[in-house]
Recover the amino acids of this structure.
């Protein structure tokens, strides 16, 4: 049994008081009694809807090695016979544990942010670096005020690399989190109209994302999308934060990690990149031009970290898209099979464009159609109607055969689609599901895309339940985006 924390070190990290007979240590850190594994420490965090202290008994039944609880809740927990660390504030104790984990670590630390592609880039970097060392990164998009400290606190002392995703939907949210992480390499994927309802424009979003540079270690690196129109804003912010080493990735002629050529296929791609004056050819197992851009960031980050680039490049040939972010299923129809592309996890104008382009490149069988199933993009505020309507140009240029729209905001797109586009609009997911299931036929390629809370994952679940898989999909990582 490998211990992530010895008990005395955890007590010191939390600055708490031990109660009861402490175990030698704990195998991990948990804040959820439903997923807690035997031997882990349960931090009873009080959230907006739930108080972890109400689940202390459930955590013990699940095999928690010890509990971290609030001093104020101790009287109510008097009947619990389990080792505990008592602290004034459990979330603050989790933060201090994360800080202690970072202080003891010798890993090369990466932090990733951006409006689009954070999680996909984090996962691609995890995949690539796993070919050259021991990697720590969250299995979920734990990127907020409790997710980042939790991921830090879980970091094994012997990790070679650690990757942290840092998200935000308001100014000032990244700043404290990146100062916990203290990355050696900070990556900004792309600035786009995500969470635009909380900002006055893309310049403000860029400024908020640029907070990531404020926590970079002395002598560290900023790695920025050179194709992003906000490159100059981000570069200046990195320099102002005291970062001497600022690099770009992309197709731009002045990018340090530059795309020279790219062959896009329905099942992946092959890219040629120029790095430090040398050209490398890299196979990429996941399809899409947006994935190529993510991979350029991965190659640049791995290079800056001193990784073995031959192993990193080779590993990317086995990269697969994740659930909700492009995962493909081949499903059996009574008369044949069809392809489902699951992009149901999140949506904004930039990721909608990428998903529609992904569908455009997807192969179809004889008689098959390309079907785009699009749902509302949320948190766009006063810009929502205009940005939904603006998708008409992208739909027209990518030319899906059928467009199925769901949600109130998508009425703006329905009103502006060209007459030659075959489409239907439904107000809710259930009506859309009925329409979709009756539309499907062998050879089709279907792409599902919307903001997560719209519930389009139900469409994916319904299709997978009704039509058996021809072959098992790639391993699915749990995803919770708190961005």
């Amino acid at each position: 049994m490998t211990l992530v924390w010895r008990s005395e070190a955890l007590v010191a990290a939390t600055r708490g008081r031990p109660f009861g007979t402490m175990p030698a240590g704990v195998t991990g850190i948990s804040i959820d009694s439903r997923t807690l594994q035997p031997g882990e420490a349960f931090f009873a965090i009080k959230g907006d809807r739930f108080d972890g202290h109400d689940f202390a008994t459930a955590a013990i039944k699940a095999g928690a090695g010890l509990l971290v609880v609030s001093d104020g809740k101790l009287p109510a927990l008097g009947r619990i016979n389990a080792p505990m660390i008592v602290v004034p504030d459990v979330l603050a104790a989790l933060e201090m544990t994360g800080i202690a984990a970072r202080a003891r670590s010798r890993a090369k630390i990466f932090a990733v942010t951006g409006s689009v592609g954070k999680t996909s880039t984090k996962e691609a970097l995890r995949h690539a670096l796993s070919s050259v060392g021991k990697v720590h990164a969250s299995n979920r998009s734990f990127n907020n005020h409790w997710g980042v400290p939790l991921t830090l606190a879980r970091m094994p002392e012997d990790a070679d690399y650690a990757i942290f995703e840092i998200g935000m939907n308001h100014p000032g949210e990244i700043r404290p989190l990146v100062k916990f992480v203290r990355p050696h390499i900070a990556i900004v994927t792309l600035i786009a109209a995500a969470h635009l309802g909380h900002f006055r424009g893309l310049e403000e979003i860029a400024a908020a994302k640029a907070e990531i540079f404020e926590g970079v270690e002395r002598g560290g690196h900023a790695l920025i999308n050179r194709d992003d129109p906000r490159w100059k804003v981000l570069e200046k912010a990195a320099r102002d934060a005291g970062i001497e080493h600022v690099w770009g990735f992309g197709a731009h002629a002045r990018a340090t990690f530059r795309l020279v050529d790219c062959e896009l296929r329905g099942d992946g791609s092959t890219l040629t990149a120029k790095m430090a004056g040398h050209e490398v050819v890299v196979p990429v197992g996941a399809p899409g031009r947006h994935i190529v851009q993510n991979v350029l960031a991965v190659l640049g980050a791995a290079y800056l970290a001193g990784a073995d680039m031959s192993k990193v490049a080779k590993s990317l040939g086995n990269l697969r898209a994740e659930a909700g972010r492009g995962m493909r299923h081949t499903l059996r129809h009574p008369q044949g099979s069809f392809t489902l592309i699951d992009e149901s996890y999140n949506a904004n104008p930039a990721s909608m464009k990428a998903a529609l382009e992904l569908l455009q490149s997807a192969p179809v069988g004889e008689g098959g159609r390309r079907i785009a199933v699009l749902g509302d993009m949320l948190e766009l505020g006063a810009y929502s109607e205009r940005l939904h309507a603006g998708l008409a140009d992208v739909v027209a240029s990518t030319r899906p055969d059928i467009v199925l729209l769901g949600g109130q905001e998508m009425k703006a797109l329905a009103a502006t689609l060209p007459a030659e586009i075959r489409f239907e609009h439904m107000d809710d997911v259930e009506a859309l599901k009925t329409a979709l299931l009756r539309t499907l036929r062998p050879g089709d390629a279907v792409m599902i895309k919307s903001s997560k809370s719209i519930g389009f994952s139900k469409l994916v679940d319904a299709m997978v339940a009704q039509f058996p898989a021809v072959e098992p999909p790639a391993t699915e990582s749990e995803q919770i985006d708190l961005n």
